[in-house]
Amino acid sequence: MNKNKSESVTPGYFGKGKRLYSVKEAAEYLGIAVQTLYNMRHRRQGPDYVMIGGVPKYEEAAIERFIESNRVCLSA
Question: Most buried residue among 19, 48, 64, 66 by CB atoms closer than 10 A?
Answer without folding.
Answer: 66
